[in-house]
Amino acid sequence: MDEERALYIVRAGEAGAIERVLRDYSDKHRATFKFESADEDKRKKLCEGIFKVLVKGVPTTCQVPCLEVLRILSRDKKILAPVTTEENMQILLRLAKLHESDDSLEKVSEFPVIVESLKCLCNIVFNSQVAQQLSLELNLAAKLCNLLRKCKDRKFINDIKCFDLRLLFVLSLLHTDIRSQLRYELQGLPLLTQILESAFSIKWTDEYESAIDHSGPPLSPQETDCAIEALKALFNVTVDSWKVHKESDSHQFRVMAAVLRHCLLIVGPTEDKTEELHSNAVNLLSNVPVSCLDVLICPLTHEETAQEAATLDELPGDKTAEKDTALKSSAMVYNGMNMEAIHVLLSFMEKRIDKGSSYREGLTPVLSLLTECSRAHRNIRKFLKDQVLPPLRDVTNRPEVGSTVRNKLVRLMTHVDLGVKQIAAEFLFVLCKERVDSLLKYTGYGNAAGLLAARGLLAGGRGDNWYSEDEDTDTEEYKNAKPNINLITGHLEEPMPNPIDEMTEEQKEYEAMKLVNMLDKLSRPCH
């Protein structure tokens, strides 16, 4: 009934009536994602009628509800045949300011039309293979990049940037050819990195270092959404970028990694949005060549070092909270390097472990990233070793029992998911410089058996990678307990009582004769 009424007005009414009836339809079906199959033909005809209205050049106030209804209808894959023609795609491109390269973005009144047109294109391209092919023929990716360049540094059009980026993400997700085009022909890597810089309002203090204002306000919801879409699009563009062939590529990836470091050190408007932002940053960092991840840590300046020492010295004894904050800050410094970003990654990993579900999608990317960083960068590995595997003091509990990061990771070493189990074990193995004796000290033989069997190291030894030869230092508590530690379980066990001590002489003689008889039977030849 709604479609019939809307179709009648669209075919016969004037702009004001069309605006009213379509706005009512949009308000009523805003949250509709499943449609009645009996009304398919009516919805197809309504789509055709809306395009005929858009061609007429109706006022902006009428264009917006037309596009809103088209966006709602385009959620249904079955009715997209009349929508996905070159003529209709061109209409949407024109309304989205993607049609003419010299079109400017000066009329604020047109912004809602641009945003709704981009939303329609997102739905149509995602749901229709015909539309995807037309996108290639119309060179939509290039048009989207041009629109991004027009609004790159203009904060008041975040919605346009957000849905432009979302459409780029959808295109690059569905077509590997577009990923290559974005990377090389359209210079998508620097363009999208600049979009992130703009969203984060980054101020560079050095080539790969940005100023971080920890007391500043969180990102706005619009800036956060825009950054998330840019991160997702960049992930697709860089998905095959493990190897760097040119110095210019290396520089660009380092700039991107520095931007991602900044991303990890800021927060979004809510805790959930911050986690989503950091999750996408982790995914993208996994595509960065490991040699370029050195920019995640940076040396402290002389001023920062002096300030840190002075802060701890000057705080009076009654300023407990302030001292705790200062000590926490100093805990993120290792060997004169600022480790804040690595600490954020470690905290993010622990939160994902604590969630207890979706480990393969949510946990393995950050574990893989920390493993590769530790393998390639000595300072990162040593900092993580201090945080995850500090010197052992209490060995009365099994390695998998407890609430420390080490306990949680050891529990994952026997997880039912093979991928999760392998990457957790690999991470701890790398922190131990791939030395079997060091790994067993922290995990016990039983928990590490799967990894050692897969690597052919059940008899001991070390992995194939080279690490510095600095030795681990054992605590006095561990040295004293070491002779009594069960190598299988990895913890100190109380000595078992000797059953012979409580036997009488007659019982001992009886047990000895039983043993003699059993040995005699074993030594007799079989008949």
UniProtKB/TrEMBL annotation:
<dbReference type="GO" id="GO:0005085">
    <property type="term" value="F:guanyl-nucleotide exchange factor activity"/>
</dbReference>
<dbReference type="InterPro" id="IPR008376">
    <property type="entry name" value="Chaperone_Ric-8_A/B"/>
</dbReference>
<protein>
    <recommendedName>
        <fullName>Synembryn</fullName>
    </recommendedName>
</protein>
<keyword id="KW-0143">Chaperone</keyword>
<dbReference type="GO" id="GO:0001965">
    <property type="term" value="F:G-protein alpha-subunit binding"/>
</dbReference>
<dbReference type="InterPro" id="IPR011989">
    <property type="entry name" value="ARM-like"/>
</dbReference>
<comment type="function">
    <text>Chaperone that specifically binds and folds nascent G alpha proteins prior to G protein heterotrimer formation. Also acts as a guanine nucleotide exchange factor (GEF) for G alpha proteins by stimulating exchange of bound GDP for free GTP.</text>
</comment>
<keyword id="KW-0344">Guanine-nucleotide releasing factor</keyword>
<dbReference type="InterPro" id="IPR016024">
    <property type="entry name" value="ARM-type_fold"/>
</dbReference>
<dbReference type="Pfam" id="PF10165">
    <property type="entry name" value="Ric8"/>
</dbReference>
<dbReference type="GO" id="GO:0005938">
    <property type="term" value="C:cell cortex"/>
</dbReference>
<dbReference type="InterPro" id="IPR019318">
    <property type="entry name" value="Gua_nucleotide_exch_fac_Ric8"/>
</dbReference>
<comment type="similarity">
    <text>Belongs to the synembryn family.</text>
</comment>
<keyword id="KW-0963">Cytoplasm</keyword>
<comment type="subunit">
    <text>Interacts with some GDP-bound G alpha proteins. Does not interact with G-alpha proteins when they are in complex with subunits beta and gamma.</text>
</comment>
